[in-house]
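[job 4471] stage=fold_predict status=RUNNING
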Amino acid sequence: MSGAFEQTLSHSYLNGTNANFIEALYEKYLSDPDSVEPRWRDYFRDLESMDPSRVRDVPHGPIREAFEQMGRSSARGRAVLAGEGMDAVAAQKQAAVLRLINAYRVRGHQHADTDPLHLREHPEVPDLDPAFHGLTEADMDTEFNTGSLFAPDRLTLRQIIEQVQRVYSGKIGSEYMHITDTAQKRWIQERLEKPQAQPKLDGAQKEALLGRLTAAEGIEKYLNSKYVGQKRFSLEGGEATIPVLDEIVQRGGAHGVKELVLGMAHRGRLNVLINIMGKSPAELFAEFEGEHAPEHANAGDVKYHMGYSSDIDTPGGPLHLALAFNPSHLEIVNPVVEGSARARMRRRADETGESVLPVLIHGDAAMAGQGVVMETFQLSQARGFYTGGTVHLVINNQIGFTTSNPLDTRSTFYCTEVAKMVQAPIFHVNGDDPEAVLFVTRLAMDYRRTFHSDVVIDLICYRRHGHNEADEPSATQPMMYQKIKARPSVRKLYADQLMSEGVIDKDRARGMEREYRDALDAEQVVAPGALEEQENDFTVDWSPYFDAAWDEPVDTTVSVERIRGLQERLQRLPEGFELNPRVATVMESRRKMAAGALAMDWGFAETMAYASLLEEDHAVRLTGQDSGRGTFFHRNSVLHNAVDGSTHTPLKTIPESADDFVVIDSLLSEEAVLGFEYGYATADPRTMVIWEAQFGDFANGAQVLIDQFIASGETKWGRLCGLALYLPHGYEGQGPEHSSARIERFLQLCAEQNIQVCIPSTPAQFFHMIRRQMLRRWRKPLVVMTPKSLLRHKLSTSVLDDLSAGHFQVVIDDTEGIKASNVRRVVLCSGKVYYDLLEERRRQERDDVALVRIEQLYPFPEAQLSALLKRRYKTAKSVVWCQEEPKNQGAWYQIYHHLTHCVTREQKLTYAGRDPSASPAVGYAKVHHEQQRRLVADALGKIHG
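[job 4471] inference complete, writing structure tokens
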């Protein structure tokens, strides 16, 4: 430290008037040395090195809180605070004791006995040593005030240390001191520290706990002997998962939870299906034998990806369990579960998650390694995505996935660090101590119920076999698997404990195993409390949506009178609400559109589609990174008061319940938000659920959801979903990342009428397409290439009569009145390029070229297009597909086979568009415009004399 700075400190800062400032700065330094100015950092570091007794390795704030608690809780404490009866040395010792207590609360988990295999040595934690705080053996039998510790007012130092070690460094390691809410911290401290807060289990409860462990182990042994060598992703080593889930279900039900949505990957899934969900063993055995095919699914999926739903009896009545289907992308199911939970909450008018509970089961490596975990945590308290708190259970095998070393799978000591971003408490627990596991589960459930926030149980266990049953883990983890092979199962350990306690005898222990095995032999349902399917007012009947056709006739029209009435209601603003001038212009234009005095634009048509659906008792949910206003200032569904910043959402005034229309400017996530909306849509067929990308290109960030859920969910799992994706698309010289929504990728995924891909070219088409999506019985994902510059194109408009008549046209014939017999060339296209072609054809005054728009690229409208080409334009010799995208992208290669079925033998099919390119678009406007000019010219061809 420089002498000048030291002199400055001594003369200006280090005096009593600045004590609070210095203390706050020192607290900041203790929390993060790099957060303070370098000279201050050097000064504090020098102080510590010069006088070790002055080291304060924990912040002083909690110590002050403890002193204040002393003052509030006892006369002795008030005397201490008043400076009575305590000399300077005693005061220093008392402060040291409080620092020690706080150190255990902050860092005691690092010395906790949470690993049944004892694979890693405990790190050095100096501040857990009394000597670090200046306490010696001579102080051990001295009584001290216990401060904020939930204990008698005064205990000897020895008793205090015994208590904090038992609470914070036993079989449970608790991390909660990162929480800034004092009430939450004090609640956790009380539940952990009060001896009576940890109820003792009676004999019956202990035997029941052993029964759940017996079931967890029993199904694995049974499957291993019956289906030798087949993959099942065994739960062995983590059998305590079953008592955890059983307690979550039963305690949740007792506290009013009526629906529980569960997401998990492979490990233990079959165990959960049998022992928690109540799946029939006969059904599982049929899957192992390859004889079972799920209803409404074609290709099916492997058994450890399958979901399930059932009803379980609890002290609070029947509880509906829904296990989400999940592909091998592990944590990708997280936002899907949250979205499903949110839809169920809305159905029950449950704003805080009292009756709906999401539970997520993670693997250790996946939780630490996959970004969607962070994104889902970020959703947890966000408006529009809140689900009342999620209970997270980590089945921590301490090995990651296949042959990895934990040191290679993360950069943090724990795999759960990500949960701290939302200040979720984390309870690490030894998976071989069933009673500690049960206590932590109750604690987590009660925390979630009290604070409606996320909570994490880190079940530290092991994996008795390899990644799957055919793996040989000893080849890469010899030391770990020596310990595992030598270690009895948790069921054996607990049975021995209960026998030593006299709770059961050996015959009873063996009898429990035999009874469970006999039940499986008899193919009986073994999950406690499993009920027949329960019907209630909140059950969704999906049967009307199966076996529907995409082209079933449906009336999507809305009368002009209704349109005008709806618009009049939308124009009403709260008293004193002042609009931004530009927004006021938009609203005035919409008033004129409703009156027929102005051509209708896209924003008006979209708003009318939603308003009419809301009036017809459908709900609408729209989320995206700028969905309220619209990325291109076209929607303006949320109005902002220019005077005070308050908001008004006119569409909320249409339905009886304002909750029937939701528009959310989401966090900057594609993967988690799209996953959430997919989950929501799979649980609610009556809501028009829409995810809007800021630019269509950004759907890249959610490709796993698109591939594994949206495109294939029905074929694999029989899951219907009416989710709509709005993907702004169009080549306008904005570069590679703001041009293409990658139509080719969606079309490549199309088969078996699994999704719809549409490119509407007029506001009326957009209107009818939106309404068709909800009014048909067909519930398939809708992928829409929405416009950008086209939103305000002078030619891309509609009139009111287009909404009160007609329907969504999958193919639009030439609208310019061209005589079919004159046509020598038919140009087929989709989207914005149509208007470029139209303007150039008008400029050239051509009547020999017909422009035909294909508005739905899948399911491809072969019948409609064939009728045009083979009848109306049968004299045309040339048919051209024109697109803006490079030849290897866009629709050309994906629809070529459809086009060949639609042309006559005499018609030659050719391509007009950009050359193949590795990049979606060029980055230079001049090059873009030249490419666009050339492809339009190629499409129209030469003028025939």
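[job 4471] summary: Residues 1-17, 50-57, 72-84 have pLDDT under 50 and may be disordered.
[job 4471] exit 0
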